[in-house]
TrEMBL record:
Lineage, top ranks: Eukaryota, Metazoa, Ecdysozoa, Arthropoda, Hexapoda
Keywords: Signal
Name this protein carries in UniProt: Chemosensory protein A 86a
Pfam families named in the record: DUF1091
The encoding gene: CheA86a
Signal peptide: 1-20
Tagged with keyword Glycoprotein: no
Amino acid sequence: MLKYTVLVLLIGIPKLLLQAQMSYEAIFVSVTSEENSKPFDLSNLRLIGRERILNGTFEILEDLDDEHFQISVEIYTNPARDGNYKLLPMSVPRQGVCTFFKKYGFYFRDCIKNGINTDLFLNTTSCLFPKGHYYLKNVTINVQNWPKIMQRGLCRHIAFFYKNNVPMGSYNLTSSIEDRAPNFNLRPL
Ligand SMILES: *[C@@H]1O[C@H](CO)[C@@H](O)[C@H](O)[C@H]1NC(C)=O
Ligand SMILES: *[C@@H]1O[C@H](CO)[C@@H](O)[C@H](O)[C@H]1NC(C)=O
Ligand SMILES: *[C@@H]1O[C@H](CO)[C@@H](O)[C@H](O)[C@H]1NC(C)=O
Ligand SMILES: *[C@@H]1O[C@H](CO)[C@@H](O)[C@H](O)[C@H]1NC(C)=O
């Protein structure tokens, strides 16, 4: 009887709703960089309030194109939250910044929308990150396109930048992966 009820319940839930709900959320913990890192100056970004919203201004210190600038990314996890980070086998190998953005840009666009959260506009055709000062406001992490299953605890993405394959600097983005508060506030679809 119980089995049958569960089945009916599952069938009764529209597919869209199941896809839309992640069992976890990710909250900013810190954004740091090694000293004198280029090509970004992130020193005027702040995390604000209980919700740790990313806000402020940042600078792109020179025009970044796919030919001369490369990025690689490593991802670490720290379930115990004790600072003992373990490298995950899902790194992004070194590649042109624009090639990277074309492949993974949706992760950023899920969180940062031009005209809403930033005035930086990235043209994926010409694919140049123009030098300049930009704002970020009200940015939170949207995990809709992240893996379905994530280990709870601290998660750290490290982005390494290179100019003509010479290291320029690195940036750590640390987030906290937590159970998402259940949301029974079902909206009509
Ligand atoms: C970035 O993370 C790595 C790996 O956890 C750590 O060794 C390094 O000290 C961090 N750097 C900064 C600037 O936070
Ligand atoms: C958020 O950043 C914007 C743009 O730099 C700034 O105008 C605003 O004062 C910041 N808000 C807070 C609460 O710091
Ligand atoms: C994007 O760049 C291409 C090539 O330089 C250009 O033709 C196009 O107008 C640009 N699009 C926008 C929206 O700026
Ligand atoms: C900030 O973003 C959230 C959703 O990410 C939205 O609900 C809220 O209205 C925004 N606040 C401001 C001041 O733009």
